[in-house]
Amino acid sequence: MAEKPQPVKVLYCPVCSLPAEYCEFGPDFEKCKPWLIQNAPHLYPDLLKEAEKTAEQLEGLKISGDQNDSSAPTGSASKQEEVKRLPGGKIKKKEKPEVVIEKVVRNKRKSVTIVKGLDMFGIKLSDASKKLGKKFASGASVVKGPTEKEQIDVQGDILYEIVDFITETWPSVPQNAIYFIEEGRKVPGA
């Protein structure tokens, strides 16, 4: 009688959650390397040799200029926290707060002014749309844009008048943080 085949035991990396053989194709192979050297050296013999070389090179080095030679620099750890990693190893930068104003023409003569980014300055968009609607005597509403972020749509062409109103009404929004989108390019509003 034939023996029953036994299930194959697969070693999974706790860092990237892929099988150890596929760590090099994962989102961040550099973070997986220490675990692989310790738990699966037979899969990546080059890593073991590379680790030995760097260990030999680091033996002769000493950090100078610090009060405590044993303390590690903490500046790099705080920078790593600010950067957000996306799937595939891409890095997402922090967005700087800015207000983007764009005019969209619809039905030949009708136009809509779109205001994006007021929420980054701590302004409630519902209150802002009410104030914009009253000031310019037009309809204003909060809608979700194509990027799933909320924005304010104001009926009418108020592209240049809106900058003064925003800076007067909300002093937390500086004039140099307001941009227009004209002909597909981002232009400073100041």
Automatic annotation (TrEMBL):
Keywords: Cytoplasm, Ribonucleoprotein, Ribosomal protein
Keyword S-adenosyl-L-methionine carried by entry: no
Regions of compositional bias (Polar residues) in chain numbering: 65-78
PROSITE patterns linked: SUI1
Molecular function via GO: mRNA binding; translation initiation factor activity
Residues covered by the SUI1 domain: 99-170
GO biological process terms, semicolon-separated: formation of translation preinitiation complex; translation reinitiation
Annotated region (Disordered), positions in chain: 58-91
GO CC term, one of those recorded: ribosome
Domain of life: Eukaryota
Location(s), subcellular: Cytoplasm
Coiled coil (residue ranges): none
PANTHER family: DENSITY-REGULATED PROTEIN (PTHR12789:SF0), DENSITY-REGULATED PROTEIN HOMOLOG (PTHR12789)
The protein's assembly and partners: Interacts with the 40S ribosomal subunit.
Family: Belongs to the DENR family.
The record's note on its domains: The SUI1 domain may be involved in RNA binding.
Name of the featured protein: Translation machinery-associated protein 22
Organism of origin: Araucaria cunninghamii
